[in-house]
Amino acid sequence: MPETTLADLAHEVRSKNAGPFWVTMELFLRDAAGYRVAADETFLNERVIAELYRVEESTIRIFRIPSLNVVKISFPRPVSQGSLRDRDMHAGQHHVPLARLVVP
């Protein structure tokens, strides 16, 4: 039986730059049940995001918006937008590890 991922629970999982120094990812969940899974702090928290994206846990901000079934996650970009080492100027591919996260 295939494992369920956050992408399976969502209408959309996306990422974008939030200025030259931050990345924002958004989970738009299909319903309240999916939101409860994604918003569960024992499942999706700063430690998990820090491990997925190799960023400092203390810099991660998670916003849970139950009225919209949305979870928003922001953290500093590993390299500033447009810098020589920037491989994704618009942060448009950062959401993939989050979308593939297997839910319990």
Give a topology summary:
Blueprint: H1 6-9, E1 10-17, E2 22-29, H2 32-39, H3 46-53, E3 61-65, E4 70-76, H4 95-99
Antiparallel strand pairs: 1-2, 2-4, 3-4
What does this structure look like?
- The chain has helices at 6-9, 32-39, 46-53, 95-99, and strands spanning 10-17, 22-29, 61-65, 70-76.
- By secondary structure, the protein is α+β, with helices and mostly antiparallel strands.
- Strand 1 (10-17) and strand 2 form a beta hairpin.
- The mean pLDDT is 90.
* Whole-angstrom Rg: 13 Å
First-residue to last-residue Cα separation: 14 Å
Quick check: average pLDDT?
90
The total number of structural domains is 1
Main sheet properties = 4 strands, antiparallel
Could you give the count of β-strands?
4
Structural class: alpha+beta
Q: What is the global morphology? A: globular
- Number of helical regions: 4
Please give the order of strands in the largest beta sheet: 1-2-4-3
InterPro entries: DUF4387
Domain DUF4387: 6-100
Organism: Amycolatopsis pretoriensis
Protein name: DUF4387 domain-containing protein
Summary, kept brief:
The chain has 104 residues and is of the alpha+beta class.
Structure characteristics:
4 strands, 104 residues, 27% strand, alpha+beta, globular
